[in-house]
Write a structure and sequence with these properties.
107 residues, Rossmann fold, four-stranded parallel sheet
Length: 107
């Protein structure tokens, strides 16, 4: 993680996800550890405390109207449009590998 080459490569990367709290905090912290940026999408129901905990790792927070599923759809759309690295714990058609790896990490 502290390897200069890793940080150099990561500095040009943006990681993005939707969250209710914990997953977003993990993605934000991981990005921070390697010198990358993170953009975390939260829905209106996520508490201010959880949003603050995510933001402490330097994440840009994007608030989405609606519920978690709406935030997931926005991540898929915006992430694909901008070429960001999507790290979702929710799968959709054509996007199953990363969520599978995230689920393995939960066990």
């Amino acid at each position: 993680i502290n390897n200069g080459r890793v940080r150099q490569i990561a500095s040009g990367m943006i990681f993005v996800c939707a969250t209710d709290g914990n997953h977003g905090r993990s993605v934000a912290q991981g990005a921070s550890l390697v010198g990358a940026r993170s953009v975390i999408f939260v829905h209106a129901g996520v508490s201010r405390e959880r949003v603050a905990a995510i933001a402490r790792f330097g994440a840009e927070i994007v608030e989405v109207e609606g519920r978690y599923d709406h935030a997931v759809r926005e991540v898929a759309r915006v992430g694909a449009e901008r070429g960001w690295k999507i790290v979702s714990n929710t799968s959709w058609l054509g996007y199953e590998r990363v969520p599978g790896l995230v689920m393995q990490g939960y066990t």
